[in-house]
Amino acid sequence: MNTIDNILKRRSIRHYKSEQIPADTLKEIINCGINAPSALNMQPWQIRVIRSQDMLQRLNGSFVDWARGKSLSGSASRAGEEGFSVFHNAPTLLIVAVDTSNHYAEGDCGMFTQNILLAANSLGVGTCVIGSMAASINESPAIRRDMLHLTDKYKVLFGIAMGYADEYPDAKQRDNSKVEWI
After folding, report:
1. What percent of the chain has pLDDT over 70?
2. Average pLDDT over residues 119-143
3. Which pTM value belongs to this model?
4. Would you list the domain boundaries of the chain?
5. Do residues 97 and 154 lie in contact, with contact meaning Cβ atoms separated by under 8 Å?
6. What is the 3-state secondary structure (H, E, C) of the chain?
């Protein structure tokens, strides 16, 4: 797949097959991520790759507990429903954390993430960025420290659900009015 087709055809996937991504494929995708540019080559990200179903269930349960009583938008608004999965039951979840002492870190993590999304798509792996997970993890020192081994220097930006797509959504409308030629 050429680069432009890959960019234009990538979609957020919210329904996954249970089949796990082979380790070699996942390593290739992550290698593409860590080869993203970063200011002064600081590489201000910490990435956690979670494939353990037990750990995924614990993270999901923690999110559901955190979401109770909150008014959330998007798919997170269904956190109280039976069978809810904040990461859409994907077999793999990446957690992207950012160095809070680095002024450029969030932009750098954005470039890291885009490389991940495009590399995965080019290899037939679906992805979905999960922003709603960040607050629930960041507000739980036990999850950040004990489960994800993140120091206080890092905060979670989002998760990335990954797996083989069990849906093929159409592109959503894009707003070209956001571009102004000067």
Report:
1. 99
2. 94
3. 0.94
4. 3-167
5. yes
6. CCHHHHHHHCCECCCECCCCCCHHHHHHHHHHHHCCCCHHHCCCEEEEEECCHHHHHHHHHHHHHHHCCCCCCHHHHHCCCCCCCCCCCCCEEEEEEEECCCCCHHHHHHHHHHHHHHHHHHCCCEEEEECCHHHHHHCCHHHHHHHCCCCCCEEEEEEEEEECECCCCCCCCCCHHHCCCC
The closest alpha carbon to 154, from 164, 144, 139, belongs to: 144
Per-residue tokens: 176: 């070209």
Report which residue type is found at 37.
P
CB-based contact 133:86 (threshold 8 Å): yes
Q: What is the CA radius of gyration of the chain?
A: 17
Burial class (CB in 10 A: 0-12, 13-18, 19+), 73: exposed
Residue range 3-167 forms a domain whose CATH class is: alpha beta
